[in-house]
Design goal:
elongated, alpha+beta, 10 helices, two-stranded antiparallel ribbon
């Protein structure tokens, strides 16, 4: 990834390299030798030396490697510095240039943020929580993508508040939207419970594994996680206004509704699917065609910038669902700096 970064990041990175941990002039020289940059002549100060090296590396489009080396966990083995605090602070600056440090196997890697994959298009509507017939949707204003549900609106929810790409959509914001939708003024546990029950109602009773995942996820709320991302069930990511019958038995879209959607900070969009036998078999007979369709749709979602994770239904049996779900989401939260 070759990319020139902003002055703000250069300034922040200069301070990070010099002080976290503290490096002498000799240690700074050793640090920069690994990037094959020309020597700095004269007798510059630590700050001037570091700034000159970073400017040269930025001109060469090599600052990504410098950032990854600067936050290498091995730099902090004998230090009292909290690497997680360093990563969180670094990400506030990197977001200015649409970058994010994420956990990798032996350290941290810089990732280009998802909004580059979405062509910078903001989220305008989320149609989710469907409990009945498919909604009949029309474009009230095609130029501004203003939708209107003309039939079956009572069976689904439409989140139409602004979503800040840098913040994502949290449970608290979803509760505020729910209160606005129902003209409620005073927040309470009862109101939150009503919203939880309305969302849970949309998950088919024929899918206990999906219900177990949903219940296990929202048990995180009791742990007081700041800005817990909202887990939205039964979300229309694609939409065909016609039914299969109206199209003479032919499908234009293999999938329209996703089991769950998370909108994390920095425009990270995560689809979670729960796979029962019908995803890969016709009855009790394995179906390569069904499996192939599923994989093809996953590829399309990834190319659109979504991350796709799948749970096998057997992983979500009641006795083990909570353990598996919490273990997975803790890793996701740590990866994106939520924990």
């Amino acid at each position: 990834m070759e990319q020139k970064l902003s002055v703000q990041i250069l300034t922040y990175l200069c301070n990070l390299i010099m002080t976290s941990p503290y490096r002498t002039m000799r240690e700074l020289t050793i640090f920069f030798k690994q990037f094959d940059v020309p020597d700095v002549y004269g007798n510059p100060s630590r700050t001037n030396y570091t700034e000159q090296q970073l400017i040269e590396l930025n001109n060469q489009g090599k600052l990504i490697s410098v950032i990854e080396q600067a936050v290498d966990p091995r730099n902090f083995f004998e230090s009292e510095i909290d690497i997680e605090e360093i990563i969180a602070e670094a990400n506030r600056f990197l977001a200015l240039d649409d970058l994010l440090l994420i956990k990798a196997r032996n350290g941290y890697k810089v990732k280009l943020l998802g909004n580059r994959h979405h062509s910078g298009q903001p989220i305008k509507n989320i149609i989710f929580g469907s409990t009945g017939p498919k909604p009949d949707i029309v474009l009230r204003d095609a130029l501004t993508n203003q939708i209107e549900i003309t039939q079956n609106a009572e069976h689904c929810l439409v989140y139409d508040h602004h979503i800040n790409d840098e913040a994502g959509l949290s449970w608290d914001e979803l509760v505020e939207w729910w209160m606005s939708l129902n003209q409620l003024k005073s927040r309470s546990d009862i109101i939150e419970r009503e919203l939880y029950q309305r969302l849970r109602k949309s998950i088919p009773e024929t899918s206990p594994p999906a219900r177990n995942l949903f219940h296990s996820y929202y048990s995180f709320k009791q742990q007081g996680i700041q800005r817990l991302p909202a887990l939205l069930p039964e979300v229309y990511l694609h939409f065909d206004p016609k039914t299969i019958i109206e199209r003479n038995g032919k499908k234009v879209l293999n999938r329209q509704r996703m089991d769950f959607l998370l909108l994390l900070p920095y425009d990270v969009r995560i689809v979670i699917e729960v796979d029962g036998k019908h995803h890969y078999a016709d009855g009790d007979i394995a179906s390569p065609e069904r499996y192939g369709e599923m994989m093809m749709e996953d590829r399309e979602l990834r190319l659109m910038g979504y991350e796709v994770y799948r749970f096998g239904a057997v992983e979500l049996n009641k006795s083990i669902a909570e353990s598996n779900v919490k273990s997975f989401f803790r890793r996701i939260f740590k990866k994106y700096g939520i924990l």
